[in-house]
Amino acid sequence: MSMVLRPLLSCGVVLALSGTALAAGRAQDSAPADAFDIVAGAGVAMRPTYIGSDRYRVSPVPLVSVRWNDMVALSAEGLRVYWNADRLTVGAGLTFDGGRDEKDKNAFSFGSGDDRLRGLGKVDASVGYQVFASYRLWRIDLDATAIKYDGNQNKGLVVRAGAALPIHLTNRLVITPHASATWANDRYMQTFFGVSDEQALRSGFARFDARGGVSGVTGGLKANYAITNHWFATADVSTTALMGDAKHSPLSFSNSATIAFTAIGYHF
Hints:
The chain is mainly beta. The chain has a single domain, classed as Porin. It is built from four helices and 15 strands.
């Protein structure tokens, strides 16, 4: 899956779940600074079969995050090491992109794929090296992430910047409107939205050179509800509007993508 949705998808759903898990966990009793902080749960998500698709599938999704000493975190966002200073957090780590197949994927796969992509070839899963920062300005959470992928096909660079505003409606219910924008370089855009001469011959899609730029803007609404001091329910609905060559690509049957999920988790 592409970071236009990771951002958007990569795995958009999984990333969103990871962020929600952490937010839900922080909304409850905080763990001691020298303790493990663990969130685990499961849910269901609806997402496009690939970025630019007008077809959707429903999949079960895990919700897992582990933090240690408020310095190291392992979640769907990857393995991260970070440093906190009052309202500022900065860090680095590893992440993962599930790639894209040229055939339909089953509901239990974290990758994306569609039979309409036959002839384009498979984009293998790839590791990404990330740096990130976040800052709380008044009640608004600002964040930015840059990821450099190092896969067989995906060697692109993606930068995402976003903002979120948690609103505590009650002691147990928090809703969070959020928005973000994603920029991707030429190599990333060509991998997921471009069509080479060889791919055009094999697939029937017209040749297309995808250039780098702002590839999507996302807006959504998240809700977290603390059922007890440990159990919580979470949900999120987000829509991304593709922009630039992501929108104009012959592979894009839709100019927007909506991701919706709901899950129940336990904060240990």
